From TrEMBL:
InterPro entries: Calcineurin-like_PHP, Metallo-depent_PP-like. It comes from the Bacteria. GO terms for molecular function: hydrolase activity. Pfam families: Metallophos (PF00149). This is Predicted phosphoesterase. Residues 1-215 form the Calcineurin-like phosphoesterase domain.
Length: 294
C-alpha cells in the first residue's frame, strides 16, 4: 500500500490535496493514506494565528486556505469534495504553529478520541500526540510538537507512552521535529531533538518521517530505522536571507512530499516536474482536479 507524507503546510491545504491528486494520476498509483508531519497551520480563527503565521500570511494568501476550509465558499467546497472523491483524507500531527488549545478541545469533545476531523468537509484529521494508529496496514506512531522549552515542547506523557511501547511494535514513526544532529541552521547550531533520537533508538521503526526544518534531509540511518525530513510544501515568495525571489508563483516544492510503499519499505522523495503545476495564491482545486484527471 502507498502512503504519501507531506511536509510543513502552513495553511496551504488546497496545495496538499491538489498535489496528492496529481501524484496518483501522474504516477498511475493509488494512495491508501496521506500523512502530514505538522505545521498544517490549523488555527480556528484569524485572531488565533501566532505572530509568524500572521506575518507570513500577509504576503502569502494561500496560507489563509486553512481558515477558508473551516467556512468554505461553494466553489472552495466543491474543489475539496472533488479531490476527496479521488484521494483519502489527510491525517496530521501537531507542529509548533497550530492552535493547540482548539485541537485539544476537538479531542475532548470526541470523548478523547485519538483521531478527530477538524473541518466540516472532514478533509483533515488531527492525531493526538502519543498514539499508534493503523494506517494503510502499517502501525504508525504519531508524536507532534518540538523539543523546546515552552508551550510547543514535546508532551511528556506522549513521549513516555511511546517509550513504553515495545521495541519493534511500530512500523512508522511520524514526528514534527527530527532526531538530534540531523542538520545545522544558518548559524551552525545543531538541529534536532535528543528525546526523539532516544525514541527512534528505542522503537526502531522501519521508517521515521519529520518536518519542521523546511528542508529535505535523508536518508539517515539509526539502527534498523531509516529517517527522512521533508521540505516545506510551499516555500515563501522571498526570505530575508535571499536577495532573489524564491517561490513567487507559490508552487509545491520538490522534496516536500515522500512516497512510502508499505510492502517493499521503499521511500522516495517526489521531485517530479508536475509538482510545479500545483501553484498559486488562489489555487482553483476543482479546475486542477478536472485537468489532472482528464
Ligand atoms: Fe514549519
Amino acid at each position: 500500500m502507498n502512503i504519501a507524507f507531506v511536509g510543513d503546510v502552513h495553511g496551504c491545504v488546497l496545495h496538499v490535496l491538489g498535489a496528492a491528486v496529481l501524484l496518483q494520476e501522474r504516477r498511475g498509483i493509488r494512495l491508501d493514506a496521506v500523512i502530514q508531519v505538522g505545521d498544517l497551520g490549523a488555527y480556528s480563527s484569524a485572531e488565533r494565528l501566532d505572530e509568524s503565521s500572521r506575518r507570513f500570511g500577509r504576503d502569502h494568501p494561500a496560507q489563509g486556505d486553512f481558515l477558508r476550509l473551516l467556512d468554505p465558499s461553494p466553489s472552495f467546497a466543491e474543489g475539496v469534495r472533488l479531490a476527496l472523491e479521488r484521494i483519502p483524507s489527510v491525517l496530521f500531527v501537531s507542529g509548533n504553529h497550530e492552535d493547540h488549545d482548539w485541537l485539544a478541545s476537538l479531542h475532548e469533545a470526541a470523548a478523547g478520541a485519538a483521531v478527530v476531523p477538524v473541518d466540516p468537509l472532514a478533509a483533515y484529521h488531527h492525531v493526538a500526540c502519543g498514539n499508534v494508529v493503523t494506517v494503510a496496514g502499517a502501525r504508525v506512531a504519531f508524536l507532534g510538537l518540538i523539543e523546546s522549552a515552552g508551550e510547543v515542547d514535546l508532551d511528556d506523557g506522549a513521549c513516555t507512552r511511546l517509550m513504553d511501547a515495545r521495541s519493534g511494535s511500530v512500523d512508522v514513526l511520524v514526528t514534527h521535529d527530527g532526531p538530534h544532529g540531523m542538520s545545522r541552521d544558518r548559524r551552525g547550531s545543531v538541529q534536532g531533538s535528543p528525546k526523539l533520537s532516544r525514541l527512534i533508538e528505542h522503537l526502531q521503526p522501519r521508517l521515521h518521517v519529520g518536518g519542521h526544518y523546511h528542508h529535505a534531509n535523508g536518508p539517515r540511518r539509526y539502527g534498523r530505522t531509516t529517517s527522512y525530513a521533508l521540505d516545506q510544501l510551499v516555500r515563501p515568495k522571498a526570505t530575508r536571507w535571499d536577495p532573489e525571489p524564491i517561490n513567487p508563483e507559490q508552487r509545491v516544492t520538490a522534496g516536500s512530499i515522500g512516497l512510502f510503499d508499505t510492502e517493499t519499505g521503499d521511500f522516495a522523495y517526489i521531485r517530479d516536474e508536475w509538482l510545479a503545476e500545483v501553484k498559486g495564491d488562489a489555487l482553483d482545486l476543482a479546475d486542477l482536479v478536472a485537468a489532472g484527471t482528464r
